Amino acid sequence: MTFMTRRDFLAASTSSAAVLVTAAPSWAALDPNKARSLIDDLVAAINKVIASGKSEAAMYRDFEAIFRKYADTSYIAAYAMGVDGRRATSAQKSAFSDAFISYIGRKYGSRFREFIGGRLEVNEVRPLKDFFEVSTTAYLRGEKPFEVSFHVSDRTGKHLFFNMFIEGVNLLLTERTEVGAMLDKRGGNIDAMIEDLKKAG
Amino acid sequence: MSRIFSIPVFMTLIGLAACSTPGPGEAPDGIFDPQEQTNRRIHEMNKTIDEKVLRPVGTAIGGGEGGGAMTVVSNFASNLDTPGTIVNQLLQLDFEGAVHNTWRFVVNTTIGLGGLADPATMIGLTEDESDFGETLYVWGFPEGEYMELPVLGPSTERDATGMVVDLFTNPLSYVLPSPEKYVGTGLKAVAKLGKRGRYAELVDGVLYDSADSYAQSRMTYLQNRRYELGDQAMDTYISPDDIDTEGF
Predict the structure, then answer these.
(1) pTM
(2) A71 DSSP 8-state letter
(3) A99-114, pLDDT tens digit by residue?
(4) CATH topology (fold) of A26-199
(5) Does the CB of A137 have a partner CB in chain B at under 8 Å?
(6) Where are the alpha helices (DSSP H) in B18-94?
(7) B219 vs A: CB within 8 A
(8) Which InterPro entries is this protein grouped with (chain B) (predicted)?
(9) A149: which strand partners?
(10) ipTM greater than 0.90, yes or no?
(11) Is A140 in contact with A115 (CB distance < 8 Å)?
């Protein structure tokens, strides 16, 4: 596995722009600098909420707003619902999306509190398939630094992240497992699962 | 020497005879868990043990005020483990890692007062653990079935086999006299408990707040372990073009 520094990547991408275009035919506008600045902005936004000292409930609402702004929420929600999405009505899909995004805000919001006094540093951006991987290192107080990475694409026309990995553990798979288990608990009843999701996290 | 090594080698062969099963990527979602019913029973038992013992004790010794003392215990236990890591890295032909950890062991044992402190990390010799499970991975053995071990928790056939062999890979256990060599094992257990307290919220999230804690801990363990090993075989990426996001 070869890692590229940002400078290496920029050099490689300018000298072989054609290669990049063949690798990502439908994503010609996908830009490593934009991918990096998206994650820089995201990290700054998260840090700002953590530093705000607001109440927990207010922070969760802020995290939800951040998630809506920086993440490709429709892709993430569709992935989390998996094959069950095929039998969902459009009303169910949109209700699920809404409940799911709030749930993510609560769940990851409560985890981010552990970041108080810590920081995320963006290391490098590298192309993978038809998207970019932005890898960052999390430095938390008294912890061994660990890798947090984001997958960024511009499928929606904007650069948004559609997956996040904490030491290899992937948000999409984790949440698809969770939603699948919630559905199983309710015998496959999508509406009941959505109600449960509103209380979870 | 040959007698010492024949035991682990023999056990490895027994363990791996049953291990000729699909690795990641060959089963849906990268999970191969034919003993799921048994594993789920063990998981319920582990959850009870966690609730009644590990969680309360861990939070008492590792949470809040206990954090500083636990760091010392965990440093010491991890330093005692380093020679085992070096042996495994040599077996993996990872000479760079072995040299890195030899320096780490020397610095922490001397300047770090026998491993109580971790000055090596401060000079850039960060922790880089390995085990016989990783050695088996490097040697090309498949991951085998997922298994949840009593008390010890999530594992795979390959990792469980590695754990057994690692009872013999640490050279210190041949050098240290009998009662002293168990001190390391005891402290390792204490350090594990401290970690349980320290990451209480995170572990609680998986064990007690998720809809199916068995499925969630299995997923988390496999992903994290494959990441540590650098095993990229499981590709879960679905291109946005192949997913119907309409309506979401």
Answers:
(1) 0.83
(2) B
(3) 999 999 998 887 777 7
(4) Nuclear Transport Factor 2; Chain: A, (3.10.450)
(5) no
(6) 36-49, 55-62, 67-91
(7) yes
(8) MlaA
(9) A135, A165
(10) no
(11) yes
